[in-house]
Amino acid sequence: MAVAFLSAQRSKDPNSQVGACIVNQENKIVGIGYNGMPNGCDDDQLPWARSADDRLDTKYPYVCHAELNAIMNKNSADVKGCTMYVALFPCNECAKLIIQAGIKEVVYLSDKYHDTPEMTASRRLLNMARIQYKQFQPKRTSIVIDFNSINHPPLLNSSTK
Fold it and tell me: Active site includes 67?
């Protein structure tokens, strides 16, 4: 789950940064993704708004979800039998992709949109396809990455030779 969260940091979405990480049966990472615009489409020329008078002025018709990107960015022949870790419970569109890709389990952290029709449809699809899903129970509340903690060898100058 930490890898999914780290991947989410790459998203330019100012409201919802979501990441996904797919692991195989040996817990080796085989795919990572985050929510963003399609390849070749300039993130700065498309809208990131959540609401607008015209739906075409929102992010929704354009953005690719983290689950889609993780499946598309896979580094193995397929992801059949794999587990997907994702920050947010998958929407119905992502549930369809998860099913078609052969993923066997989804582990999510947040289900903040639980009562929306999209999430109800997602659970219905995942249940019909017999894909397990469960909420992640963190063992710790944070992980700190300190780039200054790496031990560097001391620099030698001419007076220490």
Answer: yes
